[in-house]
Amino acid sequence: MKITFLGTRGGYPMGGQTSCARIEGNCGSLIIDLGSTLLFEHPDWVAEADHVLMTHLHPDHIAHLASLVIARLNLPAAEGDVSFVAPESIRDYMQFSGLEQVPGWRQKELVPSEWGGFTLSAIQTRHPRKNHAYRIYDGNTTLVWTGDCSYSEELADFCAGTDVLVCEASMKEEHIDNALEWGHMTPGMFARLMNEAQPALAVSTHYTELEPADFAAIVRPLLNENIELVTAFDGFELVIPVTM
Length: 244
Ligand SMILES: [Zn+2]
Ligand SMILES: [Zn+2]
Known about the structure:
It is a single chain. By secondary structure, the protein is an alpha/beta fold. The protein has 8 helices and 14 strands. It has helices at 43-48, 59-62, 65-73, 90-96, 153-159, 176-182, 187-197, 212-219; strands at residues 2-7, 20-25, 28-32, 51-53, 82-85, 105-107, 114-115, 118-124, 132-137, 142-145, 164-169, 201-207, 228-231, 237-239. It is globular. The relative contact order is 0.16. The chain binds zinc ion (2 copies). One zinc ion binds at residues 56, 58, 127, 129, 148. One zinc ion (ZN) binds next to loops.
């Protein structure tokens, strides 16, 4: 499996792009979230982007949702509709945006267990807007992508045994009250989730208050020794198993 991080900022695109990644597995590719313009610098990826997982419909995750659909309508290499899996109605969002006439997409009603060759499941996390953490298996590697959330035991159970756990890293520890109110992680909550889920690779993304290096410096001493911490950044390619 290969993950290309196209946006790793949370909330607003200061210092980089907001949430978006491309996953390449044994069985094909998919996109998670559409908050980054970097995707559009790869027309071949846009053309191939017919399977898109949305963690939730907050602006930093959907900023370029309509752009993807419209771009594909204008790319001869793009075939078929974009199939979305999301915790809320994409149609409602398109209607709100005055784009209800735009073709080229559809939404799965639920989370299908098999989708584009991947095995898929989801759980709702603690966040003010309905957010899915997704568990994705390509036949070789299991990846959990949390989207936005604060810690919960249900989330830790859902993540247990995954090879790779990509988790948001929004808040400073001293803002834990804010983090709980707004459904985000602090370094302490991030470490607790990792230590309970025990992935081989812990990956941080969705930075808001802390820069990646600062977040990592706080989290690393809190993590069990057998968990490797990787800090994602815009453009970062993570190849699993790690070959670097
Ligand atoms: Zn977010
Ligand atoms: Zn959010």
